[in-house]
Amino acid sequence: MTDVDWLRLNRENWDDRTSVHAASEYYDLPGFRAGRSTLRAFEVAEVGDVTGKSLLHLQCHMGQDTLSWARLGARVTGLDFSPEAVGTARALADETGLDARFVVSDVYEARAALGRERFDVVYTGFGALVWLPDVWRWAEVVASLLADGGFLYLAEFHPFTDVVDEDGRTLAHDYFHGDGEVYDYPLTYTDGPPLTRTRSVQWQHPLGDVVTALVRAGLRIDFLHEHDVTLFQVFATLRRAEDGTYRYPDGHPRLPLTYTLRATRA
């Protein structure tokens, strides 16, 4: 599959997802307009006070996380390769009266799209890295976007969950395969109608590659936290908590479900 193919397929797929997501109960745009934050408590705690800081959100989709950081006082920029998603994000900013800039760009072209601007915080939220074929190049882009003393904060689904079957116990897939995999799914991960552009390409990045890529790009790893909480019921054994996340029941053996990482440009 050529570079043009993966980028085109994924952009078309996410353009198609945007209208479904905007109308979905999962994303709950009316609730967001009314003041709801989409950030998890541990993200806010681990990033710390963002008042007055410049924050760039890579792969921002419809901008709810981006705007949630704006509500906490950050000066925010959201970047996404889907024009449909960016259009929704801009409309959401206008509707909520939040000051934000949204830019249409592929992550790998972010440096060109943003000129010489650098940021105090680069934020990447859940479900972003699987859409990028080259995590080493991603890390170089992230490093180039950070001001001196600035940091990347990454919150992601743990790659180990992709190798375990839905029963949460059986090893079913290769953790180390690095080739892009083509998917053809009629539905997105939210409620809503079928998609019309159903094909996408995704890559699995082992945790060691993500950490090593950031170190090679010149960043210092401040922490790597693995969590037993996730956003979807990926295994049948998980139970929904009051905050909408999913966890193992008390006493059940646990796997890491998500992770967070902060890496600083010295």
TrEMBL record:
<dbReference type="GO" id="GO:0032259">
    <property type="term" value="P:methylation"/>
</dbReference>
<keyword id="KW-0808">Transferase</keyword>
<dbReference type="Pfam" id="PF13649">
    <property type="entry name" value="Methyltransf_25"/>
</dbReference>
<protein>
    <submittedName>
        <fullName>Methyltransferase family protein</fullName>
    </submittedName>
</protein>
<keyword id="KW-0489">Methyltransferase</keyword>
<dbReference type="GO" id="GO:0008168">
    <property type="term" value="F:methyltransferase activity"/>
</dbReference>
<dbReference type="InterPro" id="IPR041698">
    <property type="entry name" value="Methyltransf_25"/>
</dbReference>
<feature type="domain" description="Methyltransferase">
    <location>
        <begin position="56"/>
        <end position="150"/>
    </location>
</feature>
<dbReference type="InterPro" id="IPR029063">
    <property type="entry name" value="SAM-dependent_MTases_sf"/>
</dbReference>
